[in-house]
Design goal:
single chain; alpha/beta; Rossmann fold; Dihydrodipicolinate Reductase, domain 2; eight-stranded mixed sheet; six-stranded parallel sheet; 16 helices; 14 strands; disordered N terminus
Length: about 475
């Protein structure tokens, strides 16, 4: 009997303790207290102002210098030969043969040879020092993105930089401060926001077709084994081997954040990340290197969950290891309907939603995707206003070097906005928000999957602009 009473007493204490801990945890999380990991947010230097909605004087010609002519750079050079109002003034790469190949692209289109820089790790600085360049286009490895962006802005240049725009919180804040101090554009080259499905869906969101959008999902799911044969020179593999977290979040983050008006009426408050154990890439490396790989850091799959100030959520995944079909996931859900791009493009809408938003289409059951013909009609009706026939025709012509067209639309929009003196489609705060999952997911994972505060990178101005919109000349 004494034993039984003792057992009941212990059980009562355990249950009471669990209940108390759960209650305290919920209270503490709600109040953003000790259970929320925070990073340092530097104060905006005196006299420095934000760059939300930044505009700069119109340019008749945009003079461009390219840094990095390896995998992605040559395609960028060729795309720019097709954009009105561009002068390609300089080309830079560590390897002289790559610069020579890029010069041949200019020759192919009957354009004058650009200045060449190569053979030195500091050659890119010489390009940035030129007085006849307005825009520096950076297509290099991840570790150089932030330092090159900062230096170029300090030399009075606008910057377009490949994804992710920065890899650490310190880099992110330095990029932001430099953009604010110099009042120069710093746009991250996130091409996936220019995919036709994402553009069309964004326009539908802005026209209210889905009602209030409550959550969005995105991902980079792409097994990269085919790219890892030259491991000794693969800086991307080395990042995965040495770093834990979502190393490549922006393809998913960009469309999701635009759908939810992040720093244009809402902001991200907190994230939590979890990962599964690493198996496929360590196995690949062990076969390739014929040695035990015990130090591999990045998980097979990393999931990050984000909650915003207005109670909305974002789910982002990263997986470059698993043998499965490519996917950026891209799902958007609202009170009146749902959009999904993978594994098939589809919309599911409440019946009365179509009746109100597109009366020429019949009512549909939201439990199923609408038929393909109805989807095509709806997408034509809500075609993005930034797309012109000439732009799309050129994008389609470039094909593979434009990721099916979206890279060209990205570049075209960048030059269009600079020439018209309009705010760019993506600003430095987008760069910060979409890239910050690299360091913040790592912090969450390494602190027992703890919730981590997502800083307000605008430092108080996230609600100044109401609703994300791409600018068009009047």
């Amino acid at each position: 009997m004494n034993t039984f009473k003792s057992y009941l007493l212990i059980l009562f204490v355990v249950l009471f303790s669990v209940g108390t801990i759960t209650s305290v945890s919920a209270k503490e999380t709600k109040s953003k207290s000790k259970y929320l990991v925070k990073t340092k947010v530097p104060k905006r230097p005196a006299g420095q102002k934000h760059v939300l909605g930044l505009t700069t004087p119109k340019m008749e010609k945009v003079r461009v210098g390219f840094i990095g002519l390896g995998m992605r750079g040559p395609g960028a050079v060729e795309r720019f030969t097709q954009i009105p109002g561009v002068e390609i003034k300089a080309l830079c790469d560590l390897h002289p043969d790559r610069v020579a190949k890029a010069q041949n692209i200019l020759k192919k289109y009957g354009l004058p040879e650009a200045a060449s820089y190569s053979g030195s790790y500091d050659a890119w600085k010489e390009l940035c020092n030129r007085s006849d360049i307005d825009l520096v286009y950076i297509v290099t490895d991840w570790s150089t993105h932030a330092p090159m962006s900062i230096y170029a802005m300090e030399k009075g240049k606008h910057v377009a930089v490949e994804v992710p725009g920065a890899m650490t919180m310190d880099e992110i804040w330095k990029v932001i401060n430099t953009a604010e101090k110099t009042q120069k554009h710093c746009m991250m080259l996130e091409n996936c926001v220019y995919d036709n499905f994402e553009l069309t869906t964004l326009n539908m969101i802005q026209k209210g077709v889905f009602g209030e959008v409550l959550y969005a999902e995105g991902a980079y799911i792409h097994q990269l084994e085919a790219f890892w044969d030259a491991y000794e020179n693969d800086w991307r593999m080395k990042y995965n081997r040495k770093q834990r977290g979502d190393l490549y979040p922006t393809h998913g983050m960009g469309p999701a954040c635009q759908a939810l008006d992040i720093h244009r009426g809402d902001k991200m408050n907190v994230l939590v990340s979890m990962d599964s154990k690493a198996v496929s890439i360590p196995n690949f490396l062990e076969k390739k290197l014929n040695e035990k790989v015990a130090d591999f850091q990045n998980g097979q799959n990393t999931m990050t969950f984000i909650r915003t100030e207005k109670g909305k959520t974002i789910h982002i995944q990263h997986d470059v290891a698993t043998p499965r079909p490519y996917s950026r996931m891209y799902n958007v859900a609202g009170t009146n309907g749902y959009a999904s791009k993978y594994p098939r493009q589809g919309y599911a809408l409440q019946g009365n939603t179509l009746e109100n938003a597109a009366p020429d289409l019949f009512k549909l059951d939201a439990h199923s995707f609408m038929p393909d013909e109805a989807r095509r009609n709806l997408m034509e009706k809500y075609k993005s206003p930034i797309l012109t026939e000439e732009m799309q025709e050129t994008a389609n012509k470039l094909g593979a070097i434009a990721h099916g067209g979206m890279d060209f639309i990205m570049d075209y929009r960048l030059i269009y906005c600079l020439r018209k003196g309009l705010p760019l489609d993506m600003d430095v705060y987008d760069l910060a928000e979409w890239s910050c999952l690299v360091p913040l997911s790592k912090i969450s994972l390494e602190n027992g999957y703890a919730p981590v505060e997502v800083p307000d990178f605008t430092r108080g101005h996230w609600n100044d602009i109401q609703g994300y919109r791409q600018a068009l000349a009047k």
